[in-house]
Amino acid sequence: MAWMIFIINIFKKVKHMKNKVLRTSISKVNELQFRTGIAQLRSLVFRDDNTATNKEKFPWAPFKAMVQKEISDHFRNWRFIILFVLISLACLGTLFATLADGMKAITADGSGNNFFFLNLFTKSNGTLPPFFGFVGFLGPLFGISLGFDAISSEQQRGTLSRIMAQPIPRDSILNAKFLAGIIVISVMFFTLSFLVLGSGLIAIGIPPTAEEFMRIMVYTVLSIVYVSFWLNLAILFSVRFKQSATSALLGIAAWLFCTIFYPLIASMIIKAYEPSQFASPRAIYFYEKLKFYLGQFMPNELFDGITSAILVPSIRSLGPLSMEQLQGAIPSSLPLGQSIMLVWPQFTGLLSLTLLCFLLSYVVFMKREIRSRG
Amino acid sequence: MAVKSIDITGLTKRYGEHIAVNNLDLSIDKGEIFGLLGPNGAGKSTTILMLLGLTEVDAGCVKVCGIDSGRYPLEVKRKVGYLPEDVGFYNDYSGLQNLMYVARLNNIPEEEAKERALEILQEVGLEDVKDNKVATYSRGMRQRLGLADVLIKNPEVIILDEPTLGLDPEGVKKFLQLIVRLSRKKGMTVLFSSHHLHQIQQVCDRVGIFVKGKMLAEGKISSLAEQLFSKNTFTLEGAISTAVQDAAEPLLSIKELVQKIKQIKGVAQVELNNNQFVIESQKDVTVELSRLVVQSGYGLNFLSKKEYGLDDIYYQYFQEGQAHEK
């Protein structure tokens, strides 16, 4: 639990700092008060205007209360604690596996890349998968476990109709659940990334370059987007199905389908189109393209593309490249901006999948009749 | 004329082919306690959901405190406290925390909310257990916490959906007294639904009997009785005996007897079943009836006059509801 207390302390400090900032800004506020006085006078004259805007005004305080409650529920939940321990153990395990054998795994690289810190995330000595592999594998499980009973458990406990009877917009419930999930995921992923960075720093003794640090941050943000896709999918299932168990199973089924069955199916389809040794370049090109695009449907494939391009700067394309395109290329690594450009389509695809899930749960939830239970 | 607390006109709700609420008109004055009485599945809960804008209205108009709840559900929810049927709480939170959460959702300032929550918990008699987790609460305590939950936002109208369900008789009594006391104290309008007539009768100013999505009768309980009595006031139950020892064959066959009974002035309906009969009439025909039976050569095993109680009002309307359905 030490890390939790640590995080809480950090939050407290941030809050404290904020207070200080607030105090210093009070003097500025005093200056502004004169202006607000005028504004009030004006609002007395143009009364209709003001009341209209008041009606439209979104109640932030209740929304904040909801998000706070959701977050504290997540942190207190055993499910979250178990998963967090599991993922951190996996990550630390891979870290030690990577750093064992005198960092052979990191340094043994013929292509002359000097990104030691990135190698910390992507390389391993073979006993365990690398860090990013674990995150890609367990991240979805984490997202699903945070979201699968978001709405259905409230319904089963009979609290949903009680909350719905309060003067809050209906979508606030969904938004609060989603936002709380994202905050929890972000806290966890940044914690993990920093833990790996910190222990790497101790082990290697070389500080990461700015570029490496930025790449790791970008990677962390993108993995948050990836996990939030699974969170959204799980929330969608929890809105649609009344039994939490059903939505959990469906979430896991979707995850298994993406990671295990879809690649199988895709490879079967690809096999059928496999060109012969003497096929025309056009046919080979088509085959490669097909192989690439079939992969792009699945969120986990998208995420794999993203991680490899961000964490391995020497990757210059995610799809097939012709010899023509490679001609004259200097075999060096890409700058961060170019790597991001490279994964932009994948990133957009992932984001749109996330939004699609959110939209669907919105549509299902907004029209629904909320009865007390069941 | 003051704004009605609840004003429903021509309200209709359909679920596919099934009509849950059929062209309902209802208005409730401010400060009134109104009981919505009906069997399960009559559409009481659906009506309440529409009052709060929790489900869409197919036709008609619902106004609560003069606000259209279909269009401005948030405004309505600010003024209405709703206790759902079989309410649930966050079990790992204490009663006080549950209340505070609802207060926060209502945008009540923290200090004020705490003060009010403690006060209300005292009123509903939960101040001793306010820091216990809700999981440890009994059914009655949960229900009282539900009432506190409704009251914390200081509503103008409170709507209780089957609030007494699952409480023991003593608990029901106390709970109802609590509702009446608090609502009278604060001048709130109360709408509560139940399928227990006696509970409604104890506390309500006015009752609506609601069957198959229709309001069959509405008014004070005494006037409900009058509405019913204007048709067939009296019911006589009795049994005739054919095996009279010293008499000869009866003069009339049973069919003829029934015909004769029907001819008695005021008799509206005669049902004869295995020598047991039920007669409904507009006036007391006991004397004429007994004379007729005996003169026809039958014996009279028993004859009893049935008084109409409130239960009978209820059943009468239920039967009518079913008859309408057929």
TrEMBL record, chain B:
One matching Pfam family: ABC_tran
Family matches, as InterPro entries: AAA+_ATPase, ABC_transporter-like_ATP-bd, P-loop_NTPase
One MF term in the entry's GO annotations: ATP hydrolysis activity
Protein's UniProt keywords contain Nucleotide-binding: yes
Chain ranges of the ABC transporter domain: 6-237
Keywords: ATP-binding, Nucleotide-binding, Transport
SMART domains assigned: AAA
Signal sequence, start to end: none
Protein family according to the UniProt entry: Belongs to the ABC transporter superfamily.
Protein name (Swiss-Prot/TrEMBL): ABC transporter ATP-binding protein
Gene source species: Arenibacter aquaticus
